[in-house]
Amino acid sequence: MSTESFAASPTLDATDKTVPKDAFQKAVQPGQSNIGKLLKFPSNIDEVGYWVAFNAAEAKLFKAEEFTKSEIRSTIILPMPGNIGTTYAQKYNTEAIGIKGSLGAGASGVLSSGSVSSIVNKMSSITKGDVADATNTLAFEFVEGATSAVGLGNAFKGAVAAQGISKNPYMAVMYDQPNLREHQFQWKLIARSKADSKVLTDIVHAFKWYSSPGVNQKNPHFLDYPEQFDIDFKQGTHLHNIGPSVLTSFNVQYHAEGKPLYYNISATEKAPVSISINASFQETTIVTKQTIDTFGR
Predict the structure, then answer these.
(1) Where are the beta strands (DSSP E) in 127-217?
(2) What pLDDT sits at residue 43?
(3) Which residues pair with 279 in a beta bridge?
């Protein structure tokens, strides 16, 4: 994924009227230090027209819908990266199910609609009736097992190979599960003022703070889950919608120009001029037909 550069002018307060209205439909709540307020870069991002908002909220297991206004703890708004996309990946396993598995496929209908007793009856009927039609194959498996048990397995295999035949493994492609989607974002952010540089420091601090666990206040032997993120695109109607996600990796380079460049914040304080950020998110729920239709996944 390519990295684009974005420059900014001094940041605006979250109450400024020039801030995109859509960004504040979900209010932020106060927190510690710079955590809990709205952060955006560049400050004139409302004039750009394309941006992505990262809304941090308390982690909730199996949450598929977007977080509500009251659940969001902080919002970070950054430019839309040059590359935006997603992957829909499914996991299948290739297995040799054998003749018994092939016969069992005949009971597929009852598995989806029948009761436990009907499923048992169906399987019983297979062993009593259907197997009779596959006597030769089952006898083959019996002899193969018997010869292996008495140490003649290789001899049996040799005899079969001499006939130029091989047992049909009845290969099948078995569906396993959908893979959880992952999304990567990359930016190169260049501050044009001391205020910009401070905002970049706050953004980095917010991402690393919300992606980290906390020590449980009631029992220090446990850790509290990091926050999850609700990710929204400006102009995202025709894009995919990203479900609640966890920030699995956050990388920041403070010398994005390949050399140290700093603003003199004060006589004793300096802040980086240019930084690069790489953030990797993973959704916490699978994509199904229902979430595609309901949430636009």
Answers:
(1) 171-178, 182-190, 214-215
(2) 85
(3) 185, 250
